[in-house]
Amino acid sequence: MAKKTIKKKTPVPKNQQHHERHVRELEALYKISRVLAEGSTQRQVFSEVLDTMHEDLWMSRGTIVLLSPDSSELSIEVARNISEKKQRATRIRMGEGVTGRVVQSGKPVVVPKVSQEPLFLDRLGRTKKIGKDEISFICVPIKIGKNVVGALSADRLFDENTPLDEGVRVLTIVASLIAHDVKFRRAEQAKRQALLDENLRLRSELEDKFRPENIIGNSNAMREVYGAIHQVAPSDTTVLIRGESGTGKELVAHAIHYTSPRAQGPFVKVNCAALSETLLESELFGHEKGAFTGAIATRTGRIEQAAGGTLFLDEIGDFSPAVQVKLLRFLQEREFERVGSSKTIKANTRIICATSRDLEKAVQHDNFRQDLYYRINVFPVFLPPLRERKDDILLLADHFVERYAKKMNKDIRRISTPAINMMVAYHWPGNVRELENSIERAVLLATEGVVQGHHLPPTLQTSDASDTTGIGSLNERVELFERDIIIDALKRQNGNLAAAARDLGTTARVVRYKVGQLGIDYQRFRVKR
To answer: Taking all residues of the chain, what is their mean pLDDT, rounded to a whole number?
Structure first.
């Protein structure tokens, strides 16, 4: 009977073993790099990394810990096969156990047999053996530059024939990839936080700037405006601000928004007079891609952008009939459709309107819908023209002088009396906006710390425009200039003629002559003791 031969299994050469292991490691590292590049949340990405280590590198029970912002302790970001409750409850102090020492020293640690290592604390309650097999533990630091931000650890079955330094090398590479992800996410978080802080700072500045108390004016007419702002701001009522151009309607709209419960929401404004009918409709309601020529992408309208906040429609009297219909529907139903779409969109947006037009006359001539007029005219706020609040001219002028002197880095301290008289006498057809522009020009021209009458625009210096006389001819203008500078010197020197002469670099006799010639009462500038 022939003997049965048994074929012996041919052992795999060591070189081939190394090659196969390296190929497997490269494939695993490639997979991990893709996970880190394509993942969403940090915890989800790290979980997939640990799964890949378990499946492709035979490194089980992987754990990633990260250092707290104050560098006092380590928290578990993700741990494989450990409940989230256990992960959240576990904290490791710097230098505590193997992981704490790795983070503290910045150097990897290898524990061949965890059952024989007293430093291995097993804070997660894992078994130190699997049956009779010993478990090896590898822990490497996660570094951003020279700074240690955490640690990556994993278990593997102890095998005398498998060198653990190979595992250290692979884990170090994985830790480096994780470090890049942590660095990027922290940088993005820092940017987001910086933007949030800047947004809060700017919003706080806007709230301070646009409080009704910060609107300039103490006249009775303006006090009525302040009362109306405080009355309507807490509600969602539609407001119609009326007044001539340049009276500050946008400023009042800001004040209503920033003293309302919607102050934390957006404040969006649209100048209706500056847009054509097609552009205005798209601007307000948005449009779909291909809705008209040039609509290359879907666009969100201003009503949607202002959801949760306020939409300010300036010069609403310029609305076309088609846009009026769509706006009326939104005011009634709080819903609309984008241009080129049939999908209905709802938006919780408060509407504040403003106009300088006579809407009643526009309704009579069928240029403005009557139903829309009644819908926006729920709570009208009337802003008086500047010529009807003469008491506020000096307050406004002083405010603008201070603003533009600071902006232009000039030491302008006050406005001369003749300049004040000219401003009070002028009828200001451009209202507060014209006054502001006039003061900006005057501050630009002023050189000696005082805004003089000749620094104001020519419209204020003519007798027809300013209702003042005696400043038409060359001699009269020279006399006006001399009067300004002599009065300013007398004010500075409390009516002392000799001191005023020294201030002006001339003699007391010349000043006394000019005072008599120009009819200046210098004694009224003396300080009574």
So the answer is: 83
